[in-house]
């Protein structure tokens, strides 16, 4: 026990942390216990209970009985390590990736793909009910209300939301068109691969089963050339060294490839030799770029990008729409599922060719141009200036002159459009993970389009925003989850709302 200046005893912060005994918990750190896994949280961890106390267990699946070792306890819940499978779920499979247990990129490879799709749908349902307080057909709230109110509630079933099965992939591997590989150094020289789970230690990697095979090949050749030329790797702790990341992009439809070397400084030694070797060994590469990032940060890209050789962009298609992709462009990483996602968006928009559509958060115009194939006029708005420049270029590339893009915040630009007499039949939103800005939701309620199509990458903020739109006079009719990132816990969702 430490003493203060007056000589009296005082507890250190460490001493004062409440123990499991003080909190009256049924388990303490390092205890081993056997629990039933009753569910899975949004991070893909199994959820079990020890005498009513919740434990999260990495790698455990619903329906399993497992022996665990407690790693950490908090007042309401704790974390435990899987020690032994006592009873195994029929959904459990052997992860095909040899480094799955080390890498943090995938979380669900130990789960059968059909079970992944079911779990992702249930994750959406749970968020709609728990956060949005929305009734889902056949869901918990729907069943409870029918039970309480009998036939009256049954008659009101039309107000329940239909959540469709998750749209998955027939071949859920090798789907990513962009690889971002951190570079480090070991005693053996330059390495590049992935950050070990829960750390910033770089582990060398030859192949990634969710990356396009050509991306793997290019990364490996670039690493080998870097080693041959004696290129130094960036050290996060010292801020020294040159090469931070190798970013590779491929157009699935065109086969065109781009390499971006992210460097800690302007000058690249042996540059001509490096470019010559890349061109000689990797003929599919049509663009080699450099991005300079000298900041001490986890953000991959810096502000300065230049073309070292070849073209400024590569091209790819989503359906019949052609896109130019630059070094910094945001472009969906799974083009096959992007077409499915946007197809569902067009279906929910109910376009006949006579509608005016506003696409909030339009990015480089991917959804806008997809919608423009079926609409009379499309307006896109995005706060990132460079993205709007790309969007305008992509509209020109496709000869779509009935699409108009503007830079700014949706909640500022859309009311200004309304003042100009622009009325939208459909508003499409595809916000970042934090969901829609509250002022944009107010703007939608003021504009009163017939339909709102909400594309979401986060079920919890989707549920929150749907509740606000429902309270403002809209009804959520139908929701479809789309699996854009198989073997991870991420899920995209498309929701259709109509005006009451």
TrEMBL record:
Keywords: 4Fe-4S, Iron, Iron-sulfur, Metal-binding, Methyltransferase, S-adenosyl-L-methionine, Transferase. GO terms for molecular function: 4 iron, 4 sulfur cluster binding; rRNA (uridine-C5-)-methyltransferase activity. Pfam families: TRAM, tRNA_U5-meth_tr. Residues 26-84 form the TRAM domain. Signal peptide: none annotated. InterPro entries: MeTrfase_TrmA_AS, MeTrfase_TrmA_CS, NA-bd_OB-fold, SAM-dependent_MTases_sf, TRAM_dom, U5_MeTrfase_fam. S-adenosyl-L-methionine binds at residues 332, 361, 382, 430. The keyword Iron-sulfur applies. GO terms for biological process: rRNA base methylation. Its EC number is 2.1.1.190. The active site is at residue 457. SUPFAM superfamilies: Nucleic acid-binding proteins, S-adenosyl-L-methionine-dependent methyltransferases. Gene3D superfamilies: 2.40.50.1070, Nucleic acid-binding proteins, Vaccinia Virus protein VP39. The keyword Iron applies. Belongs to the class I-like SAM-binding methyltransferase superfamily. RNA M5U methyltransferase family. This is 23S rRNA (Uracil(1939)-C(5))-methyltransferase RlmD.
């Amino acid at each position: 026990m430490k003493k203060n200046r007056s000589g009296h005893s005082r507890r250190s912060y460490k001493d004062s942390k409440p123990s499991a005994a003080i909190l009256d918990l049924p388990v303490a750190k390092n205890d081993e216990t056997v629990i039933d896994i009753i569910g899975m949280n949004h991070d893909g961890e199994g959820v079990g209970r020890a005498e009513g106390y919740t434990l999260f267990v990495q790698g455990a699946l619903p329906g399993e009985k497992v022996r665990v070792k407690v790693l950490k306890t908090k007042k309401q819940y704790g974390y435990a390590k899987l020690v032994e499978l006592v009873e195994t779920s029929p959904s459990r499979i052997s992860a095909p990736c040899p480094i799955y247990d080390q890498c943090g990129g995938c979380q669900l490879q130990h789960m059968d793909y059909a079970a992944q799709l079911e779990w992702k749908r249930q994750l959406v349902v749970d968020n709609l009910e728990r956060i949005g307080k929305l009734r889902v057909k056949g869901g918990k709230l729907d069943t409870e209300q029918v039970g309480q109110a009998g036939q009256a509630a049954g008659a009101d079933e039309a107000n329940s939301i239909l959540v469709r099965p998750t749209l998955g992939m027939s071949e859920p591997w090798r789907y990513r068109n962009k690889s971002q590989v951190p570079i480090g150094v070991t005693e053996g020289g330059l390495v590049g691969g992935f950050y070990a789970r829960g750390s910033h230690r770089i582990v060398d990697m030859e192949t990634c089963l969710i990356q396009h095979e050509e991306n793997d090949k290019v990364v490996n050749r670039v690493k080998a050339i870097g080693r041959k030329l004696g290129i130094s790797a960036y050290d996060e702790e010292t801020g020294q060294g040159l090469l931070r990341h190798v970013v590779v992009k491929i157009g699935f439809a065109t086969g065109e490839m781009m390499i971006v070397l992210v460097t800690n400084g302007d000058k690249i030694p042996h540059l001509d030799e490096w470019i010559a070797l890349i061109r000689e060994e990797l003929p599919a590469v049509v663009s080699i770029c450099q991005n300079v990032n000298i900041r001490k940060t986890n953000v991959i890209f810096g502000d300065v990008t230049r073309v070292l050789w070849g073209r400024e962009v590569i091209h790819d298609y989503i359906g019949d729409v052609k896109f130019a992709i630059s070094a910094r462009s945001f472009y969906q990483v799974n083009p096959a599922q992007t077409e499915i996602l946007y197809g569902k968006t067009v279906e929910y928009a109910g376009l006949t060719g006579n509608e005016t559509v506003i696409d909030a958060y339009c990015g480089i115009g991917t959804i806008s141009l997809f919608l423009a194939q079926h609409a009379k006029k499309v307006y896109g708005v995005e706060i990132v200036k460079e993205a709007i420049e790309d969007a305008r270029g992509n509209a020109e590339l496709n000869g779509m002159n009935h699409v108009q893009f503007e830079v700014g915040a949706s909640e500022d630009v859309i009311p200004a459009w309304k003042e100009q007499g622009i009325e939208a039949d459909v508003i499409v939103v595809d916000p970042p993970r934090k969901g829609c800005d509250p002022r944009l939701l107010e703007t939608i309620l003021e504009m009163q389009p017939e339909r709102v199509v909400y594309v979401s990458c986060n079920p919890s903020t989707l549920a929150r925003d749907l509740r606000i739109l429902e309270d403002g006079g809209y009804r959520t009719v139908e929701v479809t989850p789309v699996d854009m990132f198989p073997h991870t816990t991420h899920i995209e969702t498309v929701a259709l709302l109509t005006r009451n």
